Automatic annotation (TrEMBL):
The lineage of its organism: Bacteria, Bacillati, Bacillota, Bacilli, Bacillales. GO terms for molecular function: peptide transmembrane transporter activity. InterPro entries: Peptide/Ni-bd, SBP_5, SBP_5_dom. This is Peptide-binding protein. It holds the Pfam family SBP_bac_5. Belongs to the bacterial solute-binding protein 5 family.
Length: 571
């Protein structure tokens, strides 16, 4: 389907390239806003913009549509957890969303060897929330937990540490290396951490601000449930966990032991846990919330055109480097048949879905890597077009018939499409199920699941077709493509292709931008055009309402939000 010229212009205006971490991190100074810019004006000494006055009550109120399953940085793998973890932890680096560059976090400075393989980080005088000093050994401990091959619950982002020398060899069940001391991380002394990579990684500094790389306090040892209790959460970031009422609310409060506490103006952030977009909008309009909408909340889709006109100084629409898709359990018949998967992908009308259902200005997706991701020379999506398939109902019918014959079937059995509880996901699922019914005569059972259950079912391949979305963890195509390697921690489809694994390994082994782009393009073609393990639907936009008195909130290129330097003006 041909993309709308106006939508392409929107993305050209709002997406900025930079080596950043997202989901996690990033930068974008060119957001196309229809009002409030979320406070990117120079700050006065009291933290407010020049000539403005801070509110006496610095309590920020925001909603999460789903409760984070865990606050253990090793086990987290969702955007809800990311937003809250970012308030409580800090890695060696943190991302500056304005510049799109990694800047000093717990590491005050660093040295990089001429070959780009050895990073020596010099830690500042930082403290944990209980007053203990943050030391290099805290990072070694954390990364060892992530890579532990005997972990009771494997870390979903283990592969993000495979950039370290011997990390993969230590983590793999075959245990090619059994001594963790051979992995490329070493505490030279309390203030010096030495990291050795297996290959030069241009985005490594940005990756270090991702939550899987956060340090953990020594008190976690021997306490499997430390991340479920506020009283055992010792953290090193701007805020500490002070309340957690399951299913109702989460509260974090300013950490007076944080090394940069003078830059933190908020005293408290209250996160409500409500999965109704209508309720969230009502709460915003009544003043119970200071912020509503993406990435952690939702505005009802049918209300987007209305609130855009009603609140022109508060509504923000921003193209982001994220993709919305359905994934197939390729280990289960009949979805083990690629022709059936292709038929489902080719038989829906993405632009109609956007124009009539989502109403958020998204872009139809025919690839997996979204606009806004850096490539070998400029933007990846500019060089490598997402034309891996087309919408063609006639061809879809032919493919479905051929696939059914190969499976010994005359009709596709009713199957279940799973999605996490959310008004907008439900509307999309209903619309797509209706398109499948009209185009292919297929009957679909829709099943909504609570977030934690949904995530667990996907991870254990307890599904047939499931809704999903992916946000960049750093600004490189690798963050969208290495997840599909055999037995990858976030590969919920069960896809296993040695040829694909080889392409990703080759891309990771070289610093040649042209070669990397060639490997990425071949890999993306393989998972979409050749094997169709996922069905791309659209590239996201963030639609957000932010009160004009709320300043200092930043969004990176992927749409992830950073609340840590926010503040409230008198109102």
């Amino acid at each position: 389907m041909k993309k709308s010229k106006s939508l392409l212009l929107l993305f050209a205006l709002v997406l900025v390239i930079g080596t950043v971490l997202a989901g996690c991190g990033g930068g974008n100074n060119a957001a196309t806003n229809t009002g409030n810019t979320a406070g990117n004006t120079p700050a006065a000494t009291d933290g407010s913009a020049s000539g403005e006055k801070l509110a006496a009550d610095q309590t920020l109120k925001i909603n999460l549509t789903s409760e984070p399953p865990t606050f253990d940085p090793a086990l987290a793998n969702d955007s809800q957890a990311n937003t809250v973890l970012k308030t409580m932890y800090e890695g060696l680096t943190r991302m500056n969303d304005e510049t799109g560059q990694a800047e000093p976090g717990i590491a005050e400075k660093w040295d990089v060897s001429a070959d780009g393989l050895v990073y020596t980080f010099h830690l500042r005088d930082a403290k944990w929330s209980n007053g203990d000093p943050v030391v290099a050994g805290d990072f070694v401990r954390a990364w060892k937990r992530v890579l532990d091959p005997a972990a009771a619950e494997p870390a979903p982002y283990t592969y993000q540490l495979y950039y370290l020398k011997n990390a993969q060899e230590y983590n793999e069940k075959e245990k090619k290396i059994t001594d963790f001391n051979q992995v490329g991380v070493k505490a030279v002394d309390d203030k010096t951490l030495e990291v050795t990579l297996k290959a030069p990684t241009p985005y490594f500094l940005g990756l270090l601000s991702f939550y899987t790389y956060y340090p953990v306090h020594k008190s976690v040892e021997g306490n499997a449930k430390w991340a479920t209790n506020k009283d055992t959460m010792v953290v090193d970031g701007p805020f500490t966990l002070t309340e957690w009422t399951t299913g109702q609310s989460i509260q974090v409060s300013k950490n007076d032991n944080y090394w940069d506490k003078d830059s933190i103006k908020l005293s408290t952030i209250n996160f409500s846990l409500v999965n109704s977009s209508a309720t969230e909008l009502q709460a915003y309009e009544s003043g119970q919330l200071d912020y509503a909408g993406n990435p952690n909340g939702e505005i009802p889709t049918e209300q987007l055109p209305i609130v855009q006109k009603k609140y022109p100084d508060e509504f923000i629409r921003k193209g982001i480097a994220s993709v919305y898709y359905y994934e197939f359990n390729v280990t289960e018949k009949p979805f083990s048949n690629v022709k059936i998967r292709k038929a489902l992908a080719m038989s829906i009308d993405r632009q109609t879905l956007i124009d009539k259902v989502t109403l958020g200005g998204q872009l139809p997706a025919f690839g997996f890597v979204p606009p806004g991701i850096a490539g070998g020379n400029g933007e990846y999506r500019t060089a490598i077009k997402d034309n891996y398939f087309t919408e063609d109902v006639a061809q879809a019918k032919t493919l479905l018939e051929e696939g059914l014959q190969e499976e010994g079937l005359t009709k596709l059995p009713t199957f279940t499409l799973s999605y996490n509880t959310n008004d907008n996901h439900k509307k999309v699922a209903l619309a797509i199920a209706d398109m499948w019914k009209k185009s292919l005569g297929i009957d679909v059972k829709l099943e909504n699941q609570e977030w934690a259950v949904f995530i667990e079912n996907r991870q254990h391949q307890n599904f047939q077709v499931a809704r999903s979305g992916w946000t960049a963890d750093y600004n490189d195509p690798m963050t969208f493509l290495d997840m599909w390697v055999t037995k990858g921690g976030n590969n919920d489809t069960g896809y296993a292709n040695p040829a694909y694994d080889k392409l990703i390994a080759e891309a990771k082994a070289t610093g040649d931008a042209a070669v990397r782009q060639e490997k990425f393009a071949a890999a993306e073609k393989m998972i979409i055009q050749d094997d169709m393990i996922v069905m791309p639907i659209y590239y996201y936009t963030n639609n957000t309402l932010i009160k004009t008195y709320l300043k200092g909130v930043t969004h990176d290129f992927s749409g992830a939000v950073d609340l840590t330097r926010a503040y409230l003006l008198e109102h």
